[in-house]
Amino acid sequence: MANTTYSYEFKILKVEVSEDGVAHVEVHRPEALNAYSKQTWTEIGECFEQIKRDGRVRSVVLSAAGRMFTAGLDLKEALTGPLGKKADPKEDAARRGYYHRLFILEFQDAISAIETCDKPVIAVIHGGCLGIGIDVISACDIRVASEDAYFMVKEVDIGMAADIGTLQRLPKVVGNDSWVRDVCYTARRISAKEAIAVGLLSRMLPTKNEAMDAAMETARAIASKSPVAVVSTKHLLNYSRDHSVREGLEYTALWNTLAHNSHDMATAVMASLKKKQARFPNL
Question: Which CATH number does 227-273 carry?
């Protein structure tokens, strides 16, 4: 990675931003196989909200330290929270459910912050990517992995349906409803080779280091483009995915009435004509 110019301060996440505007977000809880505690997903939400508002950041690489990307939800911690709490027969079920719903929505919003962050996010997966790991990578823009990576939608194995984004995003990522139902109903292990065959991954590299290098190269290429053009492209792709073609076109026309006022368009055209590398100011 290029020289770090500054970093964000978190307890679990290590976040460094290079001089070319690439943020590297690393989940650093290797002693727990990067299992997601409340602290982890809270920091994920806060981190990507901060990145969204940081005009110096142009692209993001998300990875994890240690043996694997994530073992999924921290079940030991979960048993002391809403998931493990035994129902009190004297407690009103509707009132208990009301607050449990708020807990789930808070969790969803934290992971959705990756998707709603306007800067493209590239996930680098190595080793296991279980349970909530699928929620996380489904919210990313691009996914690359090492050959040792494997994936499991594990929620049915703990007696629940996935509820943080997998069931909503994964069908749109791979475009194969039969395959999605297969892996979500069975919680079976998916190899990196199978994941790239169905379109979950865009690239598979022999090792984690090579996957990181490939992701960083892509992130730097993105960072070299007009930040107005890049954030507009991500925003419009997300909108169009969830709306009809006509709605997407109409919204794009409205969005670009503002975005076309950027000086970046003239800068890009002139650089192209002069066969030079364009330089764009931060957002």
Answer: 1.10.12.10
